[in-house]
């Protein structure tokens, strides 16, 4: 099989494939033999019917058409790999009718396919990135201790003149009535403790309390919201408003325990505050040890992406989007949950989900194209040894057979592409200039921040 490639405009390539005459003859011979064995022809034993009889029964072009389809479908994937191109999407064979093979003659066919664009970087120097320290900082330890103390907080009375704030705890006396002036027994109470911002009541209820002091009373009405809040969920459709008569019995505050050797020994089970800080520092450093390699890779890719000159193009991004969606739905299936359940858990709409996938696909496409550009600039190659090692690492019982299947399916370009990107990423990681970020890192936005949050 011979393959020729012609580069076209708009990142497309025309591939011309020529199959030698002997391969065509062998394929026609086999197809006639299969037909003779598969069908019964009057006057001939199964498998013994001559070609003219088969042509007369099945049609003079039937065998040639079958061989043509067979040869094209088996040859074009191998031609893609042989041509050394990186296709995006499926090939197009044109609208004109494809010629049929002829016995003993070479057969030539053509197809066009979108290919990965060749791009450049603004710089091929080592990337410069910031990473958190491998060592635990005092601030990180202090933050962990604060979280621990928050877990053991107590509620204590605040001074009588303390005003209610958006995060206050209060003791309330509540009388509630509906549109018709009837008492709402589920809400009415002589005394209850309530934490503003807890979601028990709608935000409008909290807003009415802010600024009140112990002994203050207030009458107000709020709409029954469409969102579900525990205190008003049962009222939807029964009343449009809830009328409140509220008295503040007490304003309270969160009181954290004092951090002492005695407290940590009783509650945490360590001998002293110093020992607690040491243990927390070790835990933080263990976590950082597992987080930093992935975080370093993500920040390296982000920095490299900024150097990409140009855009990958819609076809590349759409191809990446399809891959992300396929991987995502496979993961959902393994977890046994539906998309609707996932969206509800995340608190996002389908439109937000689609937008996020599109943004992720664009970022991944740019990062991949940047790695491709780096690998090409550095003259990196995917050797036969590299390729075979990939199939061995896949854990296949017969790596050679698996590799042949990938060759037959025209997928070897994916292996070569993956190897080159891995080599580029390793070199970039090894040569990256890393500086330690401050305790107050710069704010990050969008999908990149979400990816780093997942890593951490």
Structure description:
By secondary structure, the chain is α+β, with helices and mostly antiparallel strands. It folds into 3 domains: about 1-115, Trigger factor ribosome-binding domain (Alpha-Beta Plaits, 2-Layer Sandwich), CATH 3.30.70.1050; about 155-255, Chitinase A, domain 3 (Roll), CATH 3.10.50.30; about 265-455, Trigger factor, C-terminal domain (Trigger factor, domain 2). The chain has 14 helices and 12 strands. Strands 6, 7, 8, 9 and 10 form a 5-stranded antiparallel β-sheet that branches. Strands 1-2-3 form a 3-stranded antiparallel β-sheet. It has a two-stranded antiparallel sheet with strand order 4-11. Helix 4 (about 140-150) packs across helix 7 (about 275-305) and helix 8 (about 315-335) packs across helix 10 (about 350-375). The longest helix is centred in the middle third of the chain and has 33 residues, at about 275-305. It starts with a strand and ends with a helix.
């Amino acid at each position: 099989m011979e393959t020729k490639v012609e580069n076209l405009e708009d990142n497309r390539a025309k591939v011309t494939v020529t199959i030698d005459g002997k391969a065509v003859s062998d394929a026609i011979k086999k197809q006639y033999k299969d037909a003779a064995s598969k069908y019964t022809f009057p006057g001939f034993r199964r498998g013994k019917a001559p070609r003219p009889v088969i042509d007369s029964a099945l049609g003079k072009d039937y065998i040639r058409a079958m061989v043509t389809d067979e040869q094209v479908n088996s040859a074009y994937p191998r031609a893609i790999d042989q041509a050394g191109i990186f296709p995006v999407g499926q090939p197009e064979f044109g609208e004109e009718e494809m010629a049929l093979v002829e016995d003993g003659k070479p057969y030539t066919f053509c197809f066009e396919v979108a290919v990965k664009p060749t791009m450049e970087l603004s710089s091929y120097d080592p990337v410069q990135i910031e990473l958190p320290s491998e060592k635990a900082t005092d601030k990180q330890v202090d933050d962990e201790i604060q979280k621990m103390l928050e877990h053991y907080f107590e509620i204590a009375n605040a001074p009588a003149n303390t005003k209610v704030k958006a995060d206050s705890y209060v003791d309330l006396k509540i009388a509630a009535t509906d549109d018709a002036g009837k008492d709402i027994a589920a809400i009415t109470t002589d005394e209850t403790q309530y934490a503003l911002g807890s979601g028990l009541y709608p935000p409008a209820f909290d807003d009415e309390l802010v600024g009140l002091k112990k002994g203050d009373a207030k009458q107000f009405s709020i709409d029954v919201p469409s969102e579900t809040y525990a205190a008003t969920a049962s009222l939807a459709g029964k009343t449009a408003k809830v009328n409140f008569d509220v008295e503040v019995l007490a304003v309270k505050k969160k009181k954290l325990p004092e951090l002492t050797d005695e407290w940590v020994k009783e509650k945490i089970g360590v001998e002293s505050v110093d020992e607690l800080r040491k243990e927390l520092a070790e835990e933080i450093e263990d976590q950082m040890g597992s987080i930093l390699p992935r975080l370093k890779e993500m920040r390296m890719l982000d920095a490299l992406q900024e150097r990409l000159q140009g855009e990958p193009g819609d076809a590349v991004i759409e191809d990446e989007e399809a891959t992300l969606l396929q991987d995502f739905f496979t993961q959902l299936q393994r977890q046994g949950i539906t998309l609707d359940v996932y969206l509800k858990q995340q608190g996002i709409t389908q439109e937000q989900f689609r937008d996020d996938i599109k943004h992720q696909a664009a970022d991944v496409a740019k990062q991949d194209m940047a790695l491709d550009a780096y690998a090409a600039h550095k003259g990196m190659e995917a050797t036969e040894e590299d390729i075979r090692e990939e199939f061995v690492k896949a854990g296949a019982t017969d790596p050679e057979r698996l590799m042949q299947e990938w060759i037959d399916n025209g997928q070897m370009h994916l292996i070569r592409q993956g190897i080159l990107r891995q080599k580029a990423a390793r070199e970039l990681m090894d040569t990256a200039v890393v500086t330690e970020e401050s305790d107050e890192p710069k704010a990050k936005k969008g999908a990149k921040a979400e990816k780093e949050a997942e890593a951490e």
